[in-house]
Amino acid sequence: MLGQRLLPWDYGVRNLFRRPSRSALTLGGLTIVVLLVLVVVGFIRGLEQSLAATGNPNVVLVYALSSGADIENSSIPGRTPALLSASVDGVRRRHGVEYVSPELYLGTRVATAGMSEPGMGLVRGVTTAAPLVRGQVQLAEGAWPQRGEVMVGRLAHSKLSAAKEDLAVGGKVTFDGQSWTISGVFKAAGSAFESEIWAPLEELQTVLKRQDLSMVAVSMESVDGVADVDLFCRERIDLELKAVAESSYYASMQKHYKPVRMLGWVVVALVAGSGIFAGLNTMYGAVVGRIRELATLQALGFRRRAILLTLVQEATLLACAAAILACVAGIWLVDGTAVRFTMGAFMLSVDSVGIAVACGVAALLGVVGALPPAVKAMRLPVVEAIKSI
């Protein structure tokens, strides 16, 4: 009985091809709306993943108490790594090597061969202990830097607004009055380190005429070891140190970007809302041009509910096709695109969450966008609708 009341499924499908120009325009508009949603969600997800990937709960950052949360302005004595190793139990060790990384961190103007103006870059002076503590760092190309050399993160070019080719292995970068040869390119699982330039610590201290450090990163055997490092910093008040778990440090950074994420979701809602209104407008035009056809179907005995479902079916099919096109375009064009922000750079991420949100918005556009014009068309008397032009 229900099958007799409904129009055939392929009736709605064939209708899409009877008006190819109108269907193509509607499909293009819906694809753009869904793609915009995908880009905004990709921005939010990329930022969240970058900050989450940077923090390790077993790693403790020790920096100057007076610097607040700004490591760039931190200055601690150069003997701090040795004091920590000798005074704190639970520091991770393998084959007699302690996982303690002294680091000098600064923001400075960096120039490459292809840049007309130097860009603001992030430089970290490190030793060979850095990869032990930063377990996510992997050398993707080239070799560890020796004297006069640096290695760059794979997103450093985005932070500097430079061409990617300028930061290839063998290229040159200049900062603080010295030219450095790029010995390697590293990646770090999408974390903020990927936008940095790493140089040998001792040579960087010589160039900067500094003997102090910005911080010490210590890898502990367990999360409980963080409290031991914090106790050491509280007892040695002469050193004026502060200890924070790396995961907590970057979690606090996420709070600073919470308004940005909220704004992003607001943009998603606005784009979806404007897309629904655009869909309403398109569907109104499509339904108005088919009033005679719809009235004829009623005259043939099809119920209004069946005709209404067919109109929703057509709109939903177009929206689903738009979602597929937008997701393919997003994965191909948007996923992995580097974006600058204050802490460095991150990559837009088109993941399962973004695809789910995009498909949900597309379904909403298809159903909600088709219902109002379809309901309005169904309210016209059959005789009056058949006589209409």
Automatic annotation (TrEMBL):
It comes from the Bacteria. One of its GO terms (cellular component) is plasma membrane. It is found in: Cell membrane. Keywords: Cell membrane, Membrane, Transmembrane, Transmembrane helix. The chain crosses the membrane at residues 24-44, 262-287, 308-333, 353-371. Residues 23-227 form the MacB-like periplasmic core domain. It is a multi-pass membrane protein. Its main location: membrane. The keyword Transmembrane applies. Residues 266-381 form the ABC3 transporter permease C-terminal domain. This is MacB-like periplasmic core domain protein. It comes from Pseudobythopirellula maris.
